[in-house]
Protein backbone atom coordinates (compact mmCIF):
# COMPACT_ATOMS: atom_id res chain seq x y z
CA UNK A 1 0.00 0.00 0.00
CA UNK A 2 2.78 2.45 0.93
CA UNK A 3 4.63 1.54 -2.25
CA UNK A 4 1.50 2.34 -4.28
CA UNK A 5 1.16 5.72 -2.56
CA UNK A 6 4.83 6.52 -3.26
CA UNK A 7 4.40 5.52 -6.89
CA UNK A 8 1.25 7.66 -7.18
CA UNK A 9 3.06 10.65 -5.64
CA UNK A 10 5.97 10.16 -8.02
CA UNK A 11 3.65 9.98 -11.04
CA UNK A 12 1.75 13.03 -9.82
CA UNK A 13 4.99 15.03 -9.47
CA UNK A 14 6.03 13.96 -12.98
CA UNK A 15 2.65 15.08 -14.34
CA UNK A 16 2.99 18.47 -12.62
CA UNK A 17 6.47 18.89 -14.10
CA UNK A 18 5.16 18.10 -17.58
CA UNK A 19 2.26 20.54 -17.18
CA UNK A 20 4.62 23.26 -15.92
CA UNK A 21 6.96 22.65 -18.85
CA UNK A 22 4.06 22.85 -21.28
CA UNK A 23 2.81 26.14 -19.84
CA UNK A 24 6.33 27.57 -19.79
CA UNK A 25 6.98 26.63 -23.41
CA UNK A 26 3.62 28.03 -24.53
CA UNK A 27 4.32 31.23 -22.62
CA UNK A 28 7.78 31.56 -24.18
CA UNK A 29 6.31 30.96 -27.64
CA UNK A 30 3.61 33.56 -27.12
CA UNK A 31 6.09 36.09 -25.76
CA UNK A 32 8.35 35.58 -28.78
CA UNK A 33 5.39 35.89 -31.14
CA UNK A 34 4.22 39.12 -29.52
CA UNK A 35 7.72 40.62 -29.54
CA UNK A 36 8.10 39.95 -33.27
CA UNK A 37 4.60 41.28 -33.90
CA UNK A 38 5.32 44.37 -31.79
CA UNK A 39 8.54 45.16 -33.67
CA UNK A 40 6.82 44.77 -37.06
CA UNK A 41 3.89 46.88 -35.88
CA UNK A 42 6.25 49.56 -34.53
CA UNK A 43 7.96 49.86 -37.92
CA UNK A 44 4.56 50.05 -39.62
CA UNK A 45 3.32 52.75 -37.23
CA UNK A 46 6.47 54.84 -37.59
CA UNK A 47 6.43 54.75 -41.39
CA UNK A 48 2.66 55.22 -41.55
CA UNK A 49 2.89 58.26 -39.28
CA UNK A 50 5.59 59.82 -41.43
CA UNK A 51 3.36 59.30 -44.44
CA UNK A 52 0.32 60.79 -42.71
CA UNK A 53 2.36 63.75 -41.41
CA UNK A 54 3.70 64.52 -44.89
CA UNK A 55 0.23 64.07 -46.40
CA UNK A 56 -1.38 66.46 -43.90
CA UNK A 57 1.54 68.86 -44.31
CA UNK A 58 1.13 68.83 -48.09
CA UNK A 59 -2.61 69.49 -47.74
CA UNK A 60 -1.89 72.44 -45.43
CA UNK A 61 1.09 73.63 -47.50
CA UNK A 62 3.29 73.35 -44.40
CA UNK A 63 5.04 70.10 -43.49
CA UNK A 64 5.57 71.26 -39.91
CA UNK A 65 1.82 71.48 -39.33
CA UNK A 66 1.43 67.91 -40.48
CA UNK A 67 3.96 66.69 -37.95
CA UNK A 68 2.42 68.85 -35.21
CA UNK A 69 -1.04 67.42 -35.88
CA UNK A 70 0.27 63.84 -35.77
CA UNK A 71 2.17 64.64 -32.56
CA UNK A 72 -0.99 66.18 -31.10
CA UNK A 73 -2.89 62.98 -31.85
CA UNK A 74 -0.31 60.96 -29.94
CA UNK A 75 -0.40 63.45 -27.09
CA UNK A 76 -4.18 62.92 -26.81
CA UNK A 77 -3.65 59.16 -26.99
CA UNK A 78 -1.10 59.42 -24.16
CA UNK A 79 -3.58 61.36 -22.01
CA UNK A 80 -6.22 58.71 -22.71
CA UNK A 81 -3.84 55.91 -21.63
CA UNK A 82 -2.88 57.76 -18.44
CA UNK A 83 -6.52 58.41 -17.54
CA UNK A 84 -7.54 54.77 -18.10
CA UNK A 85 -4.33 53.22 -16.71
CA UNK A 86 -5.97 51.11 -14.01
CA UNK A 87 -8.60 49.72 -16.36
CA UNK A 88 -5.95 48.81 -18.94
CA UNK A 89 -3.63 47.20 -16.38
CA UNK A 90 -6.45 45.19 -14.79
CA UNK A 91 -7.68 43.99 -18.17
CA UNK A 92 -4.21 42.79 -19.20
CA UNK A 93 -3.67 41.13 -15.81
CA UNK A 94 -7.00 39.30 -16.11
CA UNK A 95 -6.07 38.00 -19.56
CA UNK A 96 -2.67 36.76 -18.33
CA UNK A 97 -4.29 35.00 -15.36
CA UNK A 98 -6.88 33.37 -17.63
CA UNK A 99 -4.12 32.15 -19.95
CA UNK A 100 -1.99 30.73 -17.15
CA UNK A 101 -4.91 28.97 -15.45
CA UNK A 102 -6.11 27.14 -18.55
UniProtKB/TrEMBL annotation:
Membrane spanning residue stretches: 30-57, 63-84
Domain of life, per lineage: Bacteria
Keywords recorded for this protein, A-Z: Membrane, Transmembrane, Transmembrane helix
InterPro entries, per database record: Phage_holin_3_6
UniProt-listed Pfam families: Phage_holin_3_6
Protein's name in the database: Competence protein
Amino acid sequence: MIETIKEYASKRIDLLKIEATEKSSLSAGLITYFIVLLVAFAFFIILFNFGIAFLIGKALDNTSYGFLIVAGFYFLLMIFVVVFKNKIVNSVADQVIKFLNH
